[in-house]
Amino acid sequence: MLGFVPLAMIAPPLIHENRQAIQMSRVRMRHNVFQGDAFPKPWFRPGFQNFVWVQSPNYGVRPKGTVVDTVVVHATAGSTARGAALHFFTPASQVSAHYIIGKDGSIYQCVSTFRRAWHAGVSRDFLGRGNVNNFSIGIELVNLDNGKDPYPKAQTNALLHLIEALEYRFPLKYVTSHAYIALPAGRKVDPNGFPWHSLASLNLKLVDKGHARQGP
Ligand SMILES: [Zn+2]
C-alpha cells in the first residue's frame, strides 16, 4: 500500500482504487471490524504532489445516482498529517476524509472518491442540499485552524492541482468550506485563515462564509 503515485498518474490508479474499495467493503461485511492495511510505521511522507494510501475504515456507499459536484476544504486542527491519518484509521473515531494534504504538499488518500467519506457531519450547502457527505469530496489540510497558522504554497498548490485532477473524474462545480456547510451554524471554523485566492484559477464556484465568488 505504500507505493506512491505522481499526480500525473491519477487516472491509471483508478482501477486499483476501485478494487481496493470493493475488497475493503467485503472485509467489513464479513468481520464488521477494520482488518485493512497496517498503519505506516515508520510514518512516510511521499513528498510534494505524490500520493500514499492510508486506508480508513470509516466510509460508506454514496446513494445511487449521486453526482459528486462539490469539494469541501477542511483544516485538521492538528500539526501533523500522521495525527489526522491515525484518527481516520481508528474505527471508533467514525470520521474520515478522502484526502489529507501535508504542509509539504504530500497527499494521503484515506477513502476512495467513489465512496462516501465521513467529514462534513450534519451539514447543508449554499443550495440548501443537506447531507453534504453524499455528494462531496473531503480534503483536509494540515493546519492548526487558529487563523494564524499559515497554509504554505506547497500545500495550496497541491490542493489546487489535486482538485484540477479530480475534475477529470467528477463534474465538479463548487468548492466550499466545512465552516460554511456545518450545522448548526458556527459549529466549525475550518479551514480558518485559508487563502481562498490560491484557488482562484479554478473554473469552479468558491463558496465560503462572506466569500462567494463566481468562477470565470
Ligand atoms: Zn472539517
Describe it.
- 39% of the residues are buried.
- This protein has 4 helices and 11 strands.
- It has one domain (5-213): 3-Layer(aba) Sandwich (Lysozyme-like).
- The strands form 2 sheets. A 9-stranded mixed sheet has the order 1-2-6-5-8-4-9-10-11, with helices on both faces. A two-stranded antiparallel sheet has the order 3-7.
- Helix content is 21%, strand content 19%.
- The radius of gyration is 16 Å and the shape is globular.
- A hairpin with a 5-residue loop joins strand 5 and strand 6.
- The protein is α/β, with parallel strands linked by helices.
- It binds zinc ion (ZN).
List the helices and strands and how they pair.
Layout: E1 5-6, H1 13-31, E2 50-53, E3 59-61, E4 70-75, H2 81-89, E5 99-101, E6 107-109, E7 115-117, E8 136-141, H3 153-166, E9 174-177, H4 178-181, E10 205-208, E11 211-213
Parallel strand pairs: 2-6, 4-8, 4-9, 5-8, 9-10
Antiparallel strand pairs: 1-2, 3-7, 5-6, 10-11
Low-pLDDT windows of residues: 8-16, 18-33, 212-216
| Total strand segments | 11
Query: Span between N and C termini?
Result: 39 Å
What is the helix/strand order? EHEEEHEEEEHEHEE
- Per CATH, what is the topology? Lysozyme-like
Instruction: State the CATH superfamily name.
Output: Peptidoglycan recognition protein-like
What does the radius of gyration come to?
A: 16 Å
Bound molecules: zinc ion
Shape: globular
| CATH C-level label | Alpha Beta
CATH architecture: 3-Layer(aba) Sandwich
The class by helix and strand makeup works out as alpha/beta
**Mean of pLDDT:** 86
